[in-house]
Amino acid sequence: MRADTVALMRRYPFVTVDVFSSKPLAGNPLAVFTDARGLSDADMQSLAREMNLSETTFIFPRDAAIERERGVQVRIFTIASELPFAGHPTLGTAYVLARAQSARRIVLDLKVGQVPVNFEHRDGLMFGEMTQRDPEFGKIHRAEDVSEASGVPREAIDTSHPIQTVSTGVPFAIVPLKSIDAVRALRLDVARAPAYLEKMGAFSFYFVTRDVEDKAARLHARMQFIGGDDPATGSAAGCTAAWMVHTGIAQPEEQVMIEQGIEANRPSQIFVRAAKDGDRIGNVRVGGHVAEVITGEATLP
Questions:
Q1: Nearest by Cα to 108 from 141, 59, 45, 143
Q2: Quick check: 7 pLDDT over 80?
Q3: Minimal CA–CA distance to 294: which of 78, 30, 12?
Q4: Which residues are catalytic?
């Protein structure tokens, strides 16, 4: 390549982090472009495909006064489309900003609105906790319908707690199963599930069980999609925090841990809690550690 052509290339720095893990090569990986000014929608979608991770985020720095009022503008892309909100990209992006600014609080301006993320040190490591939207409790599902749509045997579903669609930004159908063996045996029916989920107002199933590997965990979780297993689903964990308080699996303001990603060989620890005032559940918080893995630079014509 000619030297003058190289000089005209646009350069965009990025960092990759592993979210909901205190160490690299576990948790849910994320690419963060730290200054996306000048990138078009098509550029961002192409870069997300190039990174080939479940999500890639793009930070658009603005005037400091605007950021104090509105937060830091961030856009989230999968390899196929833009998302209004997702849990691990929110926490991971806020971590990158907090590290760069030595800040204890970062407010992100996402398509879904403002999402604050607070940081503290736990055992010498940064721990971040995002506040998600107050939950919306949607439709109750019949176990027979979930079994038919998902491929999970009816007898594996735990009907002692409701199967329910809950949203704290993205709606998930929370499905309790009886055992960790049932979770490990999951083979989601990707042909039938999408139509059913759309009818029931849910983005995806989130399967959980009180049968855990780590005795410090309250739930073992798994989220499957067409591409495989999601190592950690922060948006679903927020929905599940509200669901746990609603069902009595967790007490109001009790911080509990959800283990996920074990079946994908990317173990994750997601810490959740929610408040309750009368019958109203709110102040849903989802937290965890983040580990930095790679720094680099993308060059575009």
A1: 59
A2: no
A3: 30
A4: 55
